[in-house]
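Milestone M4 deliverable, item 7.
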Amino acid sequence: MVRYQIKTGEHHVIQANRVEAPGRRRRCVGGVVVSAATVGGFVALNQPSRVARAPWRAAGGYDEFRRRALSYALLAPNPHNRQPWLVRLEGERALSLYCDLDRRLPVTDPFDRQIAIGCGAFLELLSMAAAQDGYGVAITPFPQGADMAMLDTRPVAHVVFEPGGASPDPLFGAILARRSNKSVYRAEDVPAPHLQLLAQAGAAYGQTSKTDAAPELVARLCDLTWRAHETSCVNLAVEKRR
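Output delivered:
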């Protein structure tokens, strides 16, 4: 049973909870987990360094199907890049996902809403990667119950891999292409064909998705977003004074 863990900062190789060497995102090598750093991971022109890109190069390069799926799952988007997941392999076809409580955001996310969303993204990518190998996944959220106020030491989810239980997901190909834009956006409308593509992508699972560039609606959403930001800042200031 291997416990997969992500640490921020220095480069760690972890096996059976033993740190052997001094990074960030993990990649799976047999029973070893390598965490690749992003500290100082951006060089000239804001391009990620070779070390920072290592998990993307390593994704899918493992023989054992759970580790292969995990190598994609750990690339999931997550709040403030906290990567709040711990995984314990169980038996031959199962694993449990836990929240690394040291990765919580108690001030800006006191109820662990953002952290839970990050764990959900991890599970979604795990499911998509497993489907590429023909495995379905049966996910049981909070199998031991949950404190609705915040996450605790109990598992966030239990996952069982089922051979032959899934077909490839059309969005799997986007996993390695995902990125966060750190540049300033141009002050211009998004072209209509691009909006149509966004709406189509949002309907990939049979849901309804639409876009709207109506000035009044955009102005209302901008105002709502800004007021939410101001409220968050006030809450943070109050918390710091306590």
